[in-house]
Specification:
Elements lengths: L2 E3 L2 H9 L6 E4 L7 H4 L13 H6 L4 E5 L5 H8 L6 E5 L6 H12 L6 H18 L8 E6 L5 E2 L6 H7 L3 E3 L15 E2 L11 E5 L10 H7 L4 E5 L1 H5 L4 H13 L5
Parallel strand pairs: 1-2, 1-3, 3-4, 5-7, 5-9, 9-10
Antiparallel strand pairs: 6-8
Amino acid sequence: MRIASLVPSLTELIVELGLIDHLVARTGFCIHPVERLRDIPKIGGTKDVNLAKLQRLAPTHVLVNIDENRRETVDAIRAWPRPPQIIVTHPLRPEDNLALIEQLAGAFAAAPGVDERAAALSAALHRELEQTHPEGRAPQRVLYLIWRDPWMTVARDTYISAMLARAAWQTLPDAHGGAAGAARYPVVRGDEPWLADVQQVLLSSEPYAFGVQHLDEARRLCPNASARIVDGELLSWYGARAVAGLRYLREIAATPPD
């Protein structure tokens, strides 16, 4: 097996399942775990894959995600004379990680130890899911910002929004973006009436590297809200990171913003 991962969360999951020796390609955004990935060739980004380099690496399996990779990339790989098996993923809620782990464990069950590692990871995820739920928590209307100039946020049917909902944090705007495409990450102009209803602004550390210098801007955008920086990797990466992500969500939900 020669695995190419075009998705950071899936690369991390592949390592967690004990398949690092089969990983032959990753994107430049596949950075965790750093010490294990240094020698794995990079083949561009999630949206701009170097297809020629990827083909030279001759993967037998390519891991993709509907939300993070382009359909054109997948179509181009399928058109190769000897195309690899393409494994398509699309987790939309934290609980979907259980099916994701099962999906990859099933695809690579021939490798020693995969079933056992998958079972341990699923058990850990079950425990965190049971402890992270909205019942008994005070609801909060939040704006989760992923980009600046222009401001961009997340639709209700994204993984991030579903993750926050487990802490009774309801993302605004009340918009659904569909299965894929730009509508899943709406632009915020700054004059929307619902901005006055936001109680808390969450500035993600990725993909835009928000810092403390942006907190006042966020407060001006939502004049009735507090604002804080949050770890975007822990709240948006799925797969193995969801275990720590759910734990982190409980911690920040229990901590009032400054």
